[in-house]
Amino acid sequence: MKVVVLKYFLLCLLIMGILTAGTVQAESPYETSAGTEMTTIGSSAILFALGYWADLDSPNNRPLIPEEIATLDPVQINKFDRPTTRNWSPGAAHLSDIFMYSAMIAPLSLSLTENGSKEPLTVTLMHAETLLLNGGATYLFKNLFRRTRPFVYNTNPQIPDSLRMSRTARRSFPSGHTSTAFASMVFMATVYGQMNPDSDSTKWVWAGCLTTASVTGYLRYAAGYHYPTDILAGAALGAFAGWLVPQMHEIDEDHPASGSDKQEMMFGFTLNF
After folding, report:
1. Is 217 a residue whose pLDDT tops 70?
2. For the ranges 13-22, 219-228, 243-252, 261-270, which has the lowest average pLDDT?
3. Which of 22, 135, 186, 236 has its CA 20 to 30 A from that of 142?
4. Which residues face 250 on adjacent strands?
């Protein structure tokens, strides 16, 4: 919990610093406003708060004990997810970390493009908000579902008992690595396409981004940390966040939406959780 709160706090500081640094360039396809940004941050805060409440308000909010682990049977898992209980690869887990963090950093390269260099603070702001929204939603769902990870069912003696009996062992759904990778990669491809509408390279950016995010998800499966349904849910959640935040900031010259309309859209989406 402390790590999650720290990450949220640092992202909030980053966003507040960007908000006080200046406004978006007139040529930008995106616009920022205090109302939209604070609504986005507030929505993220609500998701984190609900996740924290879900983490506390449950009699099952504890790690599994050896007696409980001994009674687990892979037959209890649906046939689609069941094969994952035989997977275990620390190497794949480590590689998935590399892919996820690379995906998080990659959108910074947008500032190296001709149009992106005109609005680096705006791009960074939107990416930070994307990570906040995705992180809050992922945190909430993990604490609501408390799904036992596949490696807990695995009898491989190389899996440490301390890992089986950790709190993270009951936070399988959805895959946080996958949701984070897809949030960052869909964000990057969406913003690149909007900034470079006539570029032939957009399709290749999309292909590279989706491949990077998909490989991250596969590695979590190969590592034995997540079921396919965890990964699919994480991909959908992250992709939605990666699309939503740029959409909230996009300038619609034909049908301009007021700041209050955008805030209502975001706040309504949050409450529907």
Report:
1. yes
2. 13-22
3. 186
4. 30
Distances 54 to 141, 143, 148, 172 between C-alpha atoms, Å: 9, 6, 16, 15
Identify the CA nearest to 64 among candidates 141, 162, 132, 193. Answer: 162
Q: Given pLDDT bands bounded at 50, 70 and 90, which one contains residue 2? A: very low
What DSSP string describes 71-91? T--GGGS-TTTGGGGG---HH
CA distance 49 to 139: 10
On whether the CB atoms of residues 24 and 32 are closer than 8 A, the answer is yes
List residues bridging with 34 in a β-sheet.
Answer: none
> Tokens 């049908």, residue?
255
- Is the separation of the CB atoms in 170 and 75 below 8 Å? no
Length of the chain: 273
* 172-189 tens-digit pLDDT: 999 999 999 999 999 999
CB within 8 Å of 106: residues ≥ 6 apart: 184, 185, 188, 209, 212
Residue 159: Cβ-neighbour burial (10 angstroms; 0-12, 13-18, 19+): middle
Name the one residue in this structure whose structure tokens are 């604490």: 143
CB 243 within 8 A of CB 25: no
Judge whether residue 20 has pLDDT over 90.
no
Amino acid code (one letter) for 221: Y
Query: Which residue bears the tokens 């997540």?
Result: 226
Alpha-carbon span 29 to 128, nearest angstrom: 18
**CB 259, CB 35: distance < 8 Å:** yes
Structure tokens at 255: 């049908």
DSSP E strand stretches across 177-261: none
Q: Spell out the domain ranges in the chain.
A: 2-271
